[in-house]
Amino acid sequence: MLNVNPERFLQSLHDLRAFGASGEGNGVVRPAYTPDELAARDWIGQQMHAAGLDVQMDAMGNQFGIAPGGGLLLGSHTDSQPEGGWLDGALGVMAGLEIARAARECDGPPISVVNFQDEEGRFGVTTGSAIWSGNLPADVADRLQDKSGKLLRDVRASLGPRVTGPVIPAQFHAYIEMHIEQGPYLDNAGEKIGVVSDIVGIRDMTVTLTGEQNHAGTTPMAHRRDAFQGLSAFNSLLNDRFRNVVQPSTVWTIGHVSLSPNASSIVPGRVQFSMQWRDSSADRLDRMESIIRTTLDEIATTHQLQLECSDMLGLAPVAMDQGLIDALAASAASHAPGNWRHMPSGALHDATNMAALMPVGMLFVPSINGKSHCFEEDTDPDDLVTGLHVLADATMRYLAGR
Amino acid sequence: MLNVNPERFLQSLHDLRAFGASGEGNGVVRPAYTPDELAARDWIGQQMHAAGLDVQMDAMGNQFGIAPGGGLLLGSHTDSQPEGGWLDGALGVMAGLEIARAARECDGPPISVVNFQDEEGRFGVTTGSAIWSGNLPADVADRLQDKSGKLLRDVRASLGPRVTGPVIPAQFHAYIEMHIEQGPYLDNAGEKIGVVSDIVGIRDMTVTLTGEQNHAGTTPMAHRRDAFQGLSAFNSLLNDRFRNVVQPSTVWTIGHVSLSPNASSIVPGRVQFSMQWRDSSADRLDRMESIIRTTLDEIATTHQLQLECSDMLGLAPVAMDQGLIDALAASAASHAPGNWRHMPSGALHDATNMAALMPVGMLFVPSINGKSHCFEEDTDPDDLVTGLHVLADATMRYLAGR
What are the pLDDT digits (tens) for B80-104? Predict the structure, then answer.
């Protein structure tokens, strides 16, 4: 057993949230590469160094605290959304740091820590781990822009002398990420731990329906080709048709809608909207896509609208490693008997990318009211500590089984 | 009979469209108080003066060409939408000018012309005639802002020495406005003249539905309070429920939709949208409003959304004067036998405000494909000339009958 220190772990989380503290609850404002975010990274580097780890940073800003020999890698990310919570990825990094420190203190097995950069996607999607894993070529990433039009290439230059050079993935043999659930399942059930079975796949496209812009007073209903009416009819039909295909954890969202010209006295001639759906089965994602495309075609015909679909963003579902699932499940059963579950992750995580490099495991602790990416995000301290113990225990079980 | 000159009339319309010519078809860009719009007004003032009319302008920029004694008033407006057509209100002003000129040339009865300002609502709604009619207090209007935040008070100062002072409404005893239909009825039926029975009433409000902003990956469908889903369900129900209440000319429109935060990966927590409906019966407008409010309440309950409705903008339906309707109908029957109709106006016009001051009549000529408020707006020259003859004839019939 590693002798982890819960008080030291909780204190480090509170110390970290001082960087970019929002002043509202425990909230933080720490998007990738902002001064507060880099200051947090510098402080974490000092903590890694003090724990006896070799601090390295690649050109993207991914930060590693490497134990001699590399070994098992724990971590997540400490950048936040523009309005974020104090736990999110920070939890996995600080838990990893505590466990790596405890392992060094008892001359235990090599356990290293990683703090990925830009998981929240100021530039891409899980940008830092995507590049490190080879899923996103660095030269392509360098041309990505944030919302203000700044290039990643220019912004990451602010890392300056922090960058030590490339970090070789092959020195690590597995990755475990602890994270808050960001959903309501554990909190609603009063459960302490979720052992992640897989990270759901996601498909996302932008749909444009074009009708005819017209005067809202003089254009009779029967003559209209109203793009908003097309969207609304599509949404209703889709909800009906999905009923026989989806499972309880399947989700789909129209989160972005842009009407043109978007004026109360003009029949909308055009609508552009996002259509996103997620599920842990690639087959179900396919069936949903086929329903979406058929329904769009129908609506375009019945409402006399032109239909255009963007290229589809698709990320396949990623299964966690069975050995790591078993180790995490055994630890959860020991520290939260009868009070944990296997579950999919509906959100993307750095673990998605890491699965391209090595066996990957994930565990969740509850999010109070399922809230995240907001200042109210929180988790009971007892649950944070249970998560720490389960992670530490699973790490040792997994290493013992190799 | 007045001896109107169709060539002179058509030439004056083409001369006028040179002010703010868009370079696309016959389109014009001549919003209220812009340099091109004021230059057009100066040129029209010269034409009025040359026709033997006394040119006056009030502090708002409403421009009058007054025959000795005032008499019957003809006109409309020459400001345009940001992207407008060459006819719209310009047609009514140039037709009025031609008829007033013809009346002066033959020493006929007093016929005056008006060119209202800001009918297209850079600041309000039919702003110039609303102020002149007393429907909109001038001090309230002065605080209105355009989309860039400029105050009407400051912008109308650009009129400078053009302003001659207040123009007394009591010197005019009736108002007739010729306008393009801006809808498809006449063009579809191949008819030449629409004699307006009434201008439909309009009600318009902004609705806000507030649910809960959530992560689109981790929030199960059953836990969502998705504001967009609320809007879509409301729209479907409303379309169903209106079926038994509306008549073929009733229209309703959701033309503005604003989601928050409007991102593809976030369940929309809030939607603000416009709900506008128009009909010629105040009673039907009431019944529609009651259905709208009931349906919104239901949706708010079933979708667990907070509902907020803005104050309602309401303009009552306005009936045209029966004497003017009769004069216009007799003239239409004479110049376009079997080829005209009585019809309501689905759009607002300056005539709406003028009805507060004096008997009001309106006639329409066809809009090709029902298009207006765009550069393609057009009408067959033969139809423009038919409109001129019907207006001139109706003017004389009405005066003869007094």
Answer: 998 899 999 999 999 999 999 999 9
Closest CA to B38 of B196, B172, B125, B162: B162
Q: Does A237 touch chain B (CB under 8 A)?
A: no
ipTM given for this complex: 0.86
Tokens, residue A338: 């009868």
Number of DSSP helices (H) and strands (E) in chain A, helices first: 12, 17
B348 touches chain A (CB under 8 A): yes
Mutate to test the interface with B, among A223, A264, A309 (most CBs of B within 10 A): A264
Shortest alpha-carbon distance between residue A238 and chain B (Å): 12
Residues 6+ apart with CB under 8 A from A269: A210, A211, A212, A213, A214, A225, A227, A260, A261
DSSP readout, B146-168?
Answer: -TT--BHHHHGGGGGGG------
Q: Quickly tell me which residue has 């891409």 as its tokens.
A: A124
How far from B358 is each of B251, B282, B311, B351, B361, CA to CA, in Å? 28, 21, 30, 10, 10
pTM comes to 0.86
A35-65 per-residue burial string, b: 16 or more CB within 10 A, e: under 16: ebbbebbebbbebbeebebebbbbbbbbbbb
User: Are the beta carbons of B262 and A258 separated by less than 8 Å?
Assistant: yes
CA A249 to chain centre: 17
Asked if the C-beta of A3 comes within 8 angstroms of chain B's C-beta atoms, the answer is: no
Contacts of A138 (CB under 8 A, 6+ apart): A59, A60, A131
Residue B173: CB atoms within 10 A of its CB come to 17
Distance in angstroms (rounded) separating the CA atoms of residues B275 and B320:
27
Query: What are A341's two structure tokens?
Result: 């579950």
Asked if residues B343 and B200 have their Cβ atoms less than 8 Å apart, the reply is no
